[in-house]
Amino acid sequence: MSHIVPDSSVRFSASVKNASGNLSDPTNISIQIFNPNSVQSASYLQGTDAELVKDATGLYHADYVIPGSPGLWSWKWRSTGSFAGAESGTFQVSASP
Question: What's this model's pTM, rounded to 2 decimal places?
Fold first, then answer.
C-alpha cells in the first residue's frame, strides 16, 4: 500500500479461488481490521455490512477510513464454508504531515 496517514481511505481487496484456480464465491467472507494495539477496529461480513462489496464472482473489496492512530495496523480476510481460507497482512500508518 502507498503512504497512509490518519483519515485516509484504504481499500482492501480479496480474491477467492477454488482448487482449480478459478474465481469462486465462498459461503461467507469477512474482513477484520486491527489497530496498532491489536484491538479490532472494524469487522465486515459480506451480505450484512455495506462496506464489504462483491465486485464479481470471487472478487471482493472493503473500504475503511483510518482513524487518527499512527503505527502498524493489520487486517485479515477469512472465507468459510465453500472455498474456505484466510489471508492477512499489515500496513503502516504515519503521523499526519
Answer: 0.89
48 Cβ partners below 8 Å, 6+ apart?
Answer: none
d(CA 39, CA 80): 22
Angstrom CA distances, 56 to 35, 68, 72, 91, stand at 29, 32, 30, 25
| Sequence-ordered strand ranges (E) for 19-70 | 28-34, 40-45, 52-56, 59-65
Residue pair 34/41 in contact by the 8 Å Cβ criterion: yes
* Residue 2: pLDDT band with limits 50, 70, 90: low
- Give the residue-averaged pLDDT of 52-78: 95
